[in-house]
Amino acid sequence: MGSQFDLGSSGSRMRLRDDFISGLEYFKCDDLEAALTLFREADESAAIDDVYQNRYTSFHGLARVFMGDPRGVKLCRKAAVGETNDPEVYCNLAMAENKLGMRESAYQALRRGLRIAPEHAGLLQMKKDIMLREQRGLVEGLKSGNWLNRILGRLVRGARQP
Predict the structure, then answer these.
(1) Which of 51, 54, 83, 102 has CA atoms 20 to 30 A from the CA of 139?
(2) Is the domain defined by 2-137 classed in CATH 2.40.128.110?
(3) Do residues 62 and 97 touch, judged by C-beta distance below 8 A?
(4) Backbone angles phi, psi at 44, to 5 degrees
(5) Neighbouring residues of 26: CB distance < 8 A, sequence distance ≥ 6
(6) How many angstroms separate the CA atoms of 54 and 49, rounded?
(7) Higher pLDDT, 136 or 22
(8) What end-to-end distance do the CA atoms of the chain give, in Å?
(9) Ramachandran sector of residue 30 (left: φ over 0; alpha: ψ -120 to 50; beta: rest)
């Protein structure tokens, strides 16, 4: 999770809220409950014209998803609607979608984020991870999209579920 989080401002005259920055520290230490409380506070208390409002909302949603609340992805999606400057919003959306098993949606969020910031380390790493996962299949030498791998994958996944 770590290195993609920007603790400073991104050249804007506005600074990130202190409660949000504290929330990031808790988030990095996997104290999701404390992070969620601070992210919610930042999200709900930010001024209407705060340039980081979408970032606050996206981290609020991401923390919810990581705590097991799949409805948190709705906050991440809300933050991404119309976002044109902040790649962190798309990185968070991609992480949330990926965590919930929505790989195609995660990949769309990655592409949108990389259009804003082609060198964003977190987005590039996630893209690499998703692509590696897609290339592996159950039958060595066949891509995961091959019909045989898809059928075997369904059988194996179905056998693992209680």
Answers:
(1) 102
(2) no
(3) no
(4) -80, -20
(5) 32, 34, 35, 38
(6) 11
(7) 22
(8) 30
(9) left
Contact 123, 110 (CB under 8 A): yes
Mean pLDDT estimate for the chain: 85
Q: What are phi and psi of 153, to 5 degrees?
A: -60, -45
- Residue identified by tokens 């980081």 is 52
CA distance 111 to 127: 9
Domain residue spans of the chain = 2-137
pLDDT of 117 strictly over 70: yes
